[in-house]
Specification:
InterPro entries: CarS, CarS_archaea. The protein is 70% helix and 2% strand. The protein is mainly α. It binds cytidine-5'-triphosphate, potassium ion and magnesium ion. Potassium ion binds next to helix 3.
């Protein structure tokens, strides 16, 4: 019961977990804000690029489509049914994760935090909230059928833990400049 809930939460959120990591690997090039400032500070900063955002969104969507392919096999191996991702749901999760992270950078700049500065809490949940909201908007029927209250609870508890672990890992591997 608890195991299937945790596995389902991880599976359902994978299209939202991949984009930020893909953006780290693909980042660079023109920043989304084009270098523009607001109140004397960058609107978003150099850490939010068109290439990273596009690569992250495409990677998240690709993961959703790949999970659809293996869903029957994995479900029967596990003995319980994992969700599949309609195109709108996969796209909503992936793009929403990127937009949540971009929104967080906007808030960081408005509160005087330089690029790369930590914002505990926001850093760990920005992309989850963005992903869930956009999935709800793009695929409401799928969202309400998939994300029961227990599943949402597991997602909101598990994601910050996974976020910390993967970011420390990426930092140790030299892929990220900061361990958050
Ligand atoms: N990245 C990107 N485009 C995005 C998100 C991330 O290009 N939409 C890349 C950038 O190279 C960025 C790196 O991934 O530096 C790490 O992402 P993140 O930690 O979110 O950005 P920061 O550089 O820490 O900037 P911020 O303080 O705005 O979060
Ligand atoms: K971030
Ligand atoms: Mg960062």
């Amino acid at each position: 019961m608890v195991v299937s809930l945790v596995v389902t939460a991880f599976w359902a959120m994978l299209p939202a977990y991949i984009p930020n990591n893909a953006a780290v690997l693909a980042g660079g090039g023109r920043p989304i804000d084009g270098g523009r400032t607001m109140d004397g500070r960058r609107i978003l900063g150099d850490g939010k690029t068109w290439r990273g955002t596009a690569a992250g969104t495409i990677a998240g969507l690709a993961v959703a489509l790949a999970l659809n392919v293996v869903q029957p096999t994995v479900s029967s191996l596990l003995g319980f049914s994992l969700p599949t991702f309609p195109l709108a749901a996969g796209f909503g999760l992936a793009l929403g994760a990127m937009l949540g992270d971009i929104g967080a950078s906007f808030l960081k700049r408005r509160t005087g935090r330089e690029r790369g500065a930590a914002f505990p809490g926001l850093d760990q949940l920005d992309f989850v909230v963005g992903a869930l909201v956009l999935a709800l908007v793009f695929a409401p029927a799928w969202f309400t059928a998939t994300f029961t209250l227990p599943l949402l609870t597991v997602v909101l508890v598990m994601t910050p833990v996974l976020h910390v672990v993967t970011n420390v890992g990426a930092y140790v591997l030299g892929l990220k400049n900061e361990p958050w």
